[in-house]
Amino acid sequence: MSLADRVEQTLRAYRLPGLEEALPADTFVLPHYGGYSIANIPATVAAMLGTELEGAMPPIPAELWADLADGVRHVVLVILDGVGYRYMPQMLADAGPGFRHLAEMGRLFPLTSVFPSTTVTALTTLRTGQAPLGHGFLGTRLLIGEYGVMAFMLTLGPAASKQREELLRWGWEPDEFVTAPTLAERLSAAGVPTIAYTYHHFVNGALSRIFLRGVGEVRGYAGFSDQWIDLRQTLVRHQDERVFVSAYWANFDSLSHLYGPRAEAGRADLRHLARALEEDLLDPLPAAAREGTLLMFVADHGEVSTPPARVVRLADHPDLQQMLLLPPGGETRAAFLYARPGQADGLRAYVAAHLADQFVPLETERALAAGLFGPGEATPELQRRLGDLLLLARGDSRLVGPKDLVEMPGHHGSLMPEEMLVPLLLMRLDG
Question: N or C terminus: which one in the chain shows less Cβ crowding within 10 Å?
Answer without folding.
Answer: N
